[in-house]
Design a protein that fits this description.
Neuraminidase, mainly beta
Amino acid sequence: MNIVNRVVIAWCVLSVSVFAYADKTVDNLTLPKGFKANLFIDNLPALRQMALGDKGTVFVGSLNGEVYGLVDTNNDGRADTVHVIAKKLNYPNGVAVHKGDLYIAEIDRITRYHDIENHLNKPPKPEVIVKDLPDKRHHGFRFIKFGPDDKLYLGVGAPCNVCLSEDKRLGTIMRVNADGSELEVFAKGVRNTVGFDWEPGTDVLWFTDNGRDWLGDHEPPDELNRAPESGMHFGFPYVYGNNKPDPKFGKLPYPQTFTMPVKNLPAHVAALGMVFYQGNQFPKDYQGDIFIAEHGSWNSSKKVGYRVSRVKHKDGTVTDYQPFVTGFLEGDDDVLGRPVALLTLPDGSLLISDDFAGKIYRVGYGG
């Protein structure tokens, strides 16, 4: 049984304290030899994307309309204070921190909170920097992250299983200046990405993309893609995987310049967050590897995903793909958790958010 002692400091200052202990989900997780998982925080609903502040605050969005700032005040690997930064938002999936400011992505807009870590107890009034984004909830949970070019990138999923949209922003990755100016499309033909990161040393964007449904248990694949430049088209809705024509749109006239995935992932695993590991705590063999949160299937006859996978790569090519953290699924059908997003902490440990169990796990190596 999970034990949580929550002390409400004051609702008006939007702050609570939480002490987290291990539970069945953590105990069920299986990791490679030398790795161990513990609870960073629990009993917070529908936790999604995470971002790290300069002073160590872990910000996390949630699908219950709130955004939290988590602080580990005694450096024991567990958050002991939770600040409620905002509430009653429109599915604030995405969070990012840039030059001390917190950016929150709702379905239809992006807001900015200035100098957030100096105002955790009394967050400033948000500034709307991007408004009037597509307001469809279907594939509308925005993932955001600042790139090496200091621009904020955001996923804008297609509002359907498979369709052609008149709104050219849909089914893309977009980017915008930090002040909200010059919003533009960076990549096209992207059905629904909820995770991307830039390769260290090359500054090339890699991203996950969810394949469409209702083509059986084994098609189409989810994808891991690579976008070294703007303007590339990744095939949706015309083709999927290695440019296999979609049965609904593959016979229509379409351009022949689609970019194929660097890795076809198993169908329906729901690959969401991904990160290049840049910490120093994991063994040398893990340095620079990609970790992917596979949220888990919803319409496969046998549940797949429900794990964190590890991807090795070299010169833009995937050389190995294997499970890293399993145990979110017990047996064939008992779902204990669904990993969403990943974040590397300054000490080199890796955080995994879980919107099903309402937890964040911390994976460390060597004790």
